[in-house]
Amino acid sequence: MNNRRDDMRKECNFSGGVRGKYARKYAQGTNLIALDPDVAKRYKDSKSVNDILRAIMKVTPAKS
Predict the structure, then answer these.
(1) pLDDT by residue (tens digit) across 37-62?
(2) Which of 43, 40, 37, 38 is CA-nearest to residue 55?
(3) What is the DSSP letter of 46?
(4) I want to staple 48 with a disulfide (CB 3.0 to 4.6 A). Which of 15, 29, 36, 43 is the partner?
(5) Are 43 and 52 spatial neighbours (Cβ–Cβ below 8 Å)?
(6) What are the residue ranges of helices labelled H in the chain?
(7) pLDDT band at 1, cuts 50/70/90?
(8) Rounded to whole angstroms, how far apart are CA atoms 14 and 37?
(9) How far is 8 from 10, CA to CA, in rounded Å?
(10) Taking the CA of residue 32 as centre, how many other CA atoms within 13 Å lie in the half-sphere pointing to its CB?
(11) What is residue 13's three-state secondary structure?
């Protein structure tokens, strides 16, 4: 049987890790949306994307 500990690099130290720390959040899913390259070039971060979407929401009717 191969001992996996022998395969780890010495600089990889997970002794302070917490098992399952993000498991609940991961299970809830995400709401990531992929932007086309031309859009991502203009709106470089989530704040700028959210700002423009909120501005659009103010001038368009909400769908029920």
Answers:
(1) 999 999 999 999 999 999 999 999 88
(2) 43
(3) H
(4) 43
(5) yes
(6) 23-28, 37-42, 46-59
(7) very low
(8) 36
(9) 6
(10) 5
(11) coil
Identify whether the C-beta of residue 43 lies closer than 8 Å to the C-beta of residue 56: no
Only one residue has tokens 């991961």, namely: 26
Question: How long a stretch of residues is the chain?
Answer: 64
For residue range 8-27, list pLDDT tens digits in order: 788 888 888 999 998 888 88
Q: Evaluate whether 35 touches 49 at the Cβ level (below 8 Å).
A: yes
Q: What is the pTM of this model?
A: 0.50
Residue 19's region, left for phi above 0, alpha for psi from -120 to 50, else beta, is: beta
Is the four-CA dihedral 50, 52, 57, 58 of positive or negative sign? positive
